[in-house]
Amino acid sequence: MSATTADALVVRNLRKLGAVAVFLCRMLAQCAPAFARPRLIVNQVYNAGGRSLVIIMLSGLFVGMVLALQGFDLLQRFGSEDALGTAAALALLKELGPVITALLFAGRAGTSLTSEIGLMSATDQLTAMKMMAVDPLRYVAAPRFIGGVIAMPLLAAVFNIIGLFGAQLVGVQLLRVDRGSFWSQMQSAVALKDVVEGIVKSLVFGFACSLIAVFEGYHAEPTAAGVGLATTRTVVASSVLILLLDYVLTACFL
Amino acid sequence: MTDPVKPAPALGASGADVLIDVRGVHYAIDGRAIFESLDLTVRRGRITGIMGPSGTGKTTLLRLMTAQVPVDSGQVLVWGQDLATLNSREVFALRKRMGMLFQNGALLTDMDVFENVAFPLREHTDLPEPLLRTLVLTKLQAVGLRGAADLMPAELSGGMARRVALARAIVMDPELLIYDEPFVGLDPISRGMIERLIRQMNEALGITSVVVSHDVPELAAIAHDSYLLSGGRVVAHGTPEELRASADDVVRQFMDGSAEGPVPFHYPAPDYEQQLLAVEDP
After folding, report:
1. Distance in Å, alpha carbon of A46 to nearest chain B alpha carbon
2. Cβ–Cβ of B92/A135 closer than 8 Å?
3. H helices of A76-191, where?
4. What is the domain partition of chain A in residue ranges?
5. Contact between chains at A123 and B66 (C-beta distance less than 8 A)
């Protein structure tokens, strides 16, 4: 890559970062007025969260089951298979729950948000709102953003609960780990700090994923190809950002 | 240089009956000039038609008139206010006094017909539900779609969607209605219906109307004043009869729908014969 090309790439990305920051400020200014129409926000919590429940629950179940298998295999080498409950709970609460939920959210709800807003733009619906003196940032963007931020920790909680159920199913029912040890060790080892870490991560991921999805949809080129590209950018950018933020947040909590 | 039927209004001309005054507007997209010193006025209580070949910037002109995009230079005055000097709150206040009919209707696809028409009322007023319902049904009755109130936009034909959009555009009783290509893609019945509705809105409610279209017969039937745009400026302006009687080449070509004339039908391209031969003999 030549120096000129690299410079152009840096400038383009910085410009986009600036555009995201400006968009975020404008949207945040519209978040308070958006709460005046709580029905819109409830609808978006349902769209982003409720409609993702099945995929989240299925994924949580299988992740928990795999976690139990792998954890049991590892722990029994040290004769510590009774700590399976603790290992599964910590892995789910601190890492797998927030991260996998966010990745699934980006693929399911994020793409849906981007394509919906992009198509609204392509069919002049956003312009029509502006012409009716209604700010689409308040009516379209802010409720979807808030809905995503609220839905993410709720989905992560569901993922964790189903994941623990899956881990218990395999660990206790299948691999015959002592039920009492499984739950009591988990209760004594998991601290409030671990739960808070998971909740904070979910909130940050929800903020990032919803912002990217809404921004890309709002700025999608108003064509079929443009909306498709914006949807792809949403998944790619969200996924990379989730993993990057996960590292940063984990380092902060240690 | 063409010879306009009636001279365009002098720069800065204004009067009590002028609702929109476009003065010496320059506007370019990606360095390509769309308008060069464009002058145009829309008078209160009249239907003003804006015609021109495709790609001449008619829809862009509507976007300039409604402050969707800023002019590069010149002025657009609406109700005497220079759009360039208004902040977003003032622009929104101005837009509450106008309605716009989009080429594709631009109905909100997640709500039914009733809610689409009720949308501006719910956003800008605190009317009690029974009164809001009465207002919406009255407007739907005016466009003949009271019976379609429960349908979703996806269940409507193009003509029906356009009529619902018209009901939505007039539900706040605007003083100015802007129509972007209202006749495009409609069957003759829907076209006649839209034409009658535009005229009725003007005659019964005194609404000032701006109609952008390249459907000459329909526009000539309803417009009081017409502007013909070409090459980024007004090439002719007058009543439809005056435009029809014009000897100007551009006006004649447009009104007669001829491919021959000063407005080229073909996009600039290399020599046809040479290009074909180049394909055969690479």
Report:
1. 15
2. yes
3. 84-90, 97-105, 111-122, 125-131, 136, 142-168, 179-189
4. 3-253
5. no
Residue listed under structure tokens 């003065």 = B23
**In sequence order, what E strands does chain B have?**
18-29, 32-43, 47-51, 73-78, 81-82, 98-101, 176-180, 208-212, 225-230, 233-238
Question: Is A123 an 8 Å CB contact of chain B?
Answer: yes
- Tens of pLDDT, residues A13-27: 899 999 999 999 999
Q: Per the CB < 8 Å rule, is B123 touching A133?
A: yes
pLDDT computed for residue B2 by the predictor: 38
Q: Mind listing the pLDDT tens digit for each residue in B31-63? A: 888 888 888 999 999 999 998 877 788 888 999
Write the residue in B95, B102, B106 that is nearest to A133 by C-beta: B95
Report CB contact under 8 Å: A128, B124: no
ipTM of the complex, rounded to two decimals: 0.83
pLDDT at B282: 53
CATH 3.30.450.40 fits B1-93+206-282, yes or no: no
Interval A89-103: pLDDT, tens:
999 999 999 999 999
Measured between beta carbons, which residues in chain B are less than 8 angstroms from residue A120?
A: 109
B35 and chain A in contact, CB less than 8 A: no
Instruction: Provide DSSP, A199-216.
Output: HHHHHHHHHHHHHHHHHH
Q: Which residue of chain B comes nearest to A139, CA vs CA? A: B123
Which of A125, A127, A133 is opposite residue B124, by nearest beta carbon? A133
